[in-house]
Design goal:
The protein has 267 residues and is mostly beta strands. It has one domain: Beta Barrel (Porin). The protein is 12% helix and 41% strand. The chain has a 15-stranded mixed beta sheet that branches. This is Thioesterase-like superfamily protein.
């Protein structure tokens, strides 16, 4: 029988958090998927913001080293304060020793803007079929029953977790980010979006690794609603590098795009 998953990705613990099994990534059961990590860093960045009614318009994550499943700490500061525009930095460390806490594993820089009413550009292109027209699917490549793939309800508009090629999927949260508080739409978006290169994989998971070394998300407006979508395609170059680009959606239309650089290596 498959064990019941935890109710949250992270549990508050001391001055940080403890990652639950729902953060386990596809490459190693001892290492976290970067999606929950990205969401936790964005949460911390927004908590130190001096533009409380603002919107986060660009998030750039550098994955400096793998993040183990276990205790983590996050810290944030304003790099560029301002009443209309600000730049926030957040870093994540893991472990309990002083050396561990001095070694950043993932770094975020996020631009936030004060909101103002303007006339939007009409949206072009064909809308992504909604979650009600999409099919449920579970990833087959995770090595443990309880891992990242069970943190979200996945509905595929086209493509598949388990077949190569471009794919588009809708998700809704099946847990919270931090125990005791709701997962915000932006947090949900980041938990989901780092999986863009996974749902649109073009290489065999058993023969090749293609982990992303970064994640950049640019947003036209804040995400809203229960269901969020990602429409992704991956391309692999001839010298061990890959790229994944994705359009990001909520129920009312496209909200932005994401980009990932991939390090490709034969197992």
């Amino acid at each position: 029988m498959t064990p019941a998953p935890p109710s949250a990705l992270y549990l508050p613990e001391g001055d940080g958090y403890r990652a639950t099994d729902l953060t386990i990534g596809p490459w190693d059961p001892a290492l976290q998927h970067a999606g929950p990590v990205a969401a936790l860093l964005a949460r911390e960045a927004e908590r130190v913001s001096a533009i409380p009614a603002g919107q986060t318009v660009r998030l750039a994550f550098d994955i400096l080293a793998p993040v183990p499943v276990g205790p983590v700490q996050v810290a944030a500061r304003l790099l560029r304060p301002g009443r209309r525009i600000e730049l926030v930095e957040a870093v994540l460390t893991a472990g309990d020793s002083p050396a561990d806490r001095d070694r950043p594993l993932v770094r975020l820089t996020a631009w936030r803007l004060r909101t103002s009413a303007v006339e939007p550009t009409p949206e072009a292109g064909v809308p992504l079929p909604g979650p009600e027209q999409s099919r449920p699917e579970t990833a087959a490549f995770f090595t443990t029953d309880v891992a990242y793939h069970r943190a979200l309800d996945w509905r595929f508009a086209h493509g598949s977790f388990n077949a190569p090629g471009p794919a588009a999927a809708w998700t809704r949260p099946l847990c919270t980010l931090v125990e005791g508080e709701p997962m915000s739409p932006l947090q949900h978006l980041l938990v989901m979006t780092d999986a863009a290169s996974g749902i649109s994989a073009v290489l065999d998971w058993t023969r090749t690794t293609f982990a992303n070394i970064d994640l950049t998300v640019a947003l036209l407006r804040p995400p809203a609603g229960e269901w969020l979508g990602v429409d992704a395609a991956t391309t692999i170059g001839p010298a061990g590098a890959g790229q994944c680009f994705a359009d990001l959606h909520d129920a009312t239309g496209r909200i932005g795009r994401s980009a990932q650089a991939l390090f490709v290596e034969t197992r």
